[in-house]
């Protein structure tokens, strides 16, 4: 069955990231919120060493990986810079994102917005303090 022949679920994905780049660890966290109708799911990832852009892309890849069927995905991120850099250090994750989108039949739209930042940023920064206890590391 092709994607065009069925109605896709609409999923909103909000992402925010933060990184302790001034420290030697360069620990970064991404908080992800996925919303489908009235179902809301929060999860987070922590990476070390990383940058804020890279952990944001990691979070985006994790989010689309969790979707079990083709969806129309509204992606809300604070900046588009991480996705617009062919040849950058993070481009491997951009390619991985597009590969997953294509393989699973998703359609997406990127919406750059700051509206979700204020309510999610403090939670994301607090993840960096409690990360070993509450967050999944890349090595797990």
List the SSEs and their pairings.
Blueprint: E1 9-19, E2 28-36, E3 39-47, H1 52-66, E4 71-77, H2 91-104, E5 107-112, H3 117-134, E6 136-137
Parallel strand pairs: 1-4, 3-6, 4-5
Antiparallel strand pairs: 1-2, 2-3
What's a concise summary of this model?
The chain is of the alpha/beta class.
CATH class: Alpha Beta
> Would you identify the CATH H-level superfamily?
Ribonuclease H-like superfamily/Ribonuclease H
Helix content: 25-40%
Low-confidence stretches: 130-140
Backbone CA Rg: 15 Å
Gross morphology is globular
N to C succession of SSEs: EEEHEHEHE
What is the CATH architecture assignment?
A: 2-Layer Sandwich
Number-wise, the strands total 6
Provide the CATH topology: Nucleotidyltransferase, domain 5
How many helices? The count is: 3
């Amino acid at each position: 069955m092709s994607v065009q022949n069925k109605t896709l679920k609409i999923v909103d994905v909000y992402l925010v990231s933060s990184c302790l780049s001034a420290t030697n660890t360069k620990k970064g966290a991404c908080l992800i919120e996925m919303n489908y109708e009235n179902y809301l799911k929060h999860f987070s990832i922590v990476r070390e060493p990383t940058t804020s852009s890279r952990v944001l892309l990691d979070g985006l890849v994790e989010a689309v990986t969790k979707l079990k069927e083709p969806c129309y995905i509204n992606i809300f991120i604070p900046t588009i810079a991480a996705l617009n850099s062919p040849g950058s250090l993070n481009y491997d994750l951009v390619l991985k994102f597009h590969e997953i989108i294509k393989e699973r039949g998703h359609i997406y739209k990127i919406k750059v917005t700051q509206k979700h930042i204020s309510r999610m940023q403090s939670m994301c920064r607090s993840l960096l303090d409690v990360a070993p206890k509450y967050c999944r590391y890349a090595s797990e």
